[in-house]
Amino acid sequence: xxxxxxxxxxxTAAVFTKYIRLLVDNPRYARMALGLPGxxxxxxxxxxxxxxxxxxxxxxxxGIAFVIVLGGFLLFKGFGIDRATKDAYKxxxxxxxxxxxxxxxTYTIIAGILCIAVSVYLGIANVNxxxxxxxxDLGGWLGATPKIATFFIKGLDTLLVIGLNIILxxxxxRLYFEKDSxxxxxxxxxxxxxxxxxxxxxxxxxxxxxxxxxxAVVGLNDEIFASFLFTIIVGILIGVASxxxxxxxxxxxxxxx
Length: 257
Hints:
Layout: H1 7-25, H2 27-53, H3 62-79, H4 81-94, H5 100-130, H6 138-177, H7 183-212, H8 223-256
Helix pairs in contact: 1-2, 2-3, 5-6, 6-7, 7-8
């Protein structure tokens, strides 16, 4: 009896064994070849047991579970969510915090932006509460614009100014630690922004005053208008004084150096 071996069969068996071993031993491929079917088989077994012992008809939920698991797997692989999660974990693990001044500046920027966003919401909410009911036609909206603008400004001005100053204060702290000459300019800007609260309040008061009293005459004899003009002039003087102070201090620093 003569037995003849075929080399092609042996090669096919070797290649098949190689790829089977690759699917089993390589974690990257094992998750797809074994992990996903394993999860589906496990779900099927659990539902089968529930169907036999606890709740008749549970096995019919396997179709839903199959679609959810397979769809979730394809979604994760298709959009690379698993890789993104892995990269995020690696970044968080290797992350080293920046210097404290930069952290303070970053946190104050975030806090300031949140305050500004909330201030806009408060302005809109104040309009909805105080300016209602709203007109239905364009002419009515144009007529109600001063009232809407007033309540919007009064609703947002406080938190808006606070948010802007939080950002500027955080930046000033960073500039102080870095010994940056822009610190003085930033400090002057803080004062100007803080005073802008009174400018906004005065603007809102002027708008609503002349909206409610159509017979009022614009002039210095009007207390509301005079107060508004005073806040504008003081704001300009604060800005000019801040610029002059920065200029003088910079000149003094250059002479010392």
